[in-house]
Amino acid sequence: LESFHKVLRGKQIASIGNIRSHDGRNGHFFANYVPDHGPDGTVRGYYVLSQDITEMKRVEDELRRSEDCLNLAQRIAHIGNFEITLLVADHYFDDELNWSGETCRIFGLDPERDTATPELLISLIHPDDKDKTITAYDKAMAGEGKYSCDYRLLLANGEIRHAYERGEVAF
User: Fold this and answer.
1) What is the DSSP letter of 141?
2) Measured over all CA atoms, what is the biggest interatomic distance in the chain, rounded to whole angstroms?
3) Contact partners, residue 7, CB within 8 Å, separation at least 6
4) With contact defined as beta carbons under 8 Å apart, do 27 and 18 qualify?
5) What integer pLDDT is reported at residue 87 of this predicted model?
6) How far apart are CA 79 and CA 100, in angstroms?
């Protein structure tokens, strides 16, 4: 009720709600309440623009369940994935990096606290393995497309972990 009073005072309101259709099925809707101002600026009513978003909500729920299953599988298998969005050709240090939670944990990082960057990824590779790993990345981005490499991680606490990485560049 307070929302309607806000609309009648001139404020536009958007909301998402649940609805039961005439055949008894539950659904979801998005509604936008827009005040109708008269020539003198007073609110004389409002328009309601609504849209059935039931299918969108169903797809969102399905995607969320799928992501949960993927995260569980990665955690159990102790494998991860990451994606780099190339912003500057041939120079991935300026690019955006998206790591899965399990990739963060493999690299000794907290997915809730640490922000993945290409610089961070490279900094955690053992100094003796950096050149071969960067060469593998560079060759893939120069046109080979696919790469694989074994390397060691040197974590902040001094722990050494062995990693195998396989990737594919998609242009």
Assistant:
1) I
2) 75
3) 13, 33, 34, 35, 43, 46
4) yes
5) 57
6) 9
Task: For tokens 């062995």, name the residue.
Answer: 162
What residues in the chain have per-residue pLDDT under 50? none
DSSP state of 92: G
Q: Tokens standing for 93?
A: 């240090």
Long-range contacts (CB closer than 8 Å, 24 or more residues apart) made by 123-128: 124/153, 124/154, 124/155, 125/151, 125/152, 125/153, 125/154, 126/151, 126/152, 126/153, 126/154, 126/160, 127/154, 128/152
For residue 78 the two structure tokens come to 């102790």
Beta pairing partners, 82: 99
- At 71-89, the pLDDT tens digits run 999 999 989 988 877 655 5
In a 13 Å sphere around the CA of 18, the CA atoms on its Cβ side amount to 5
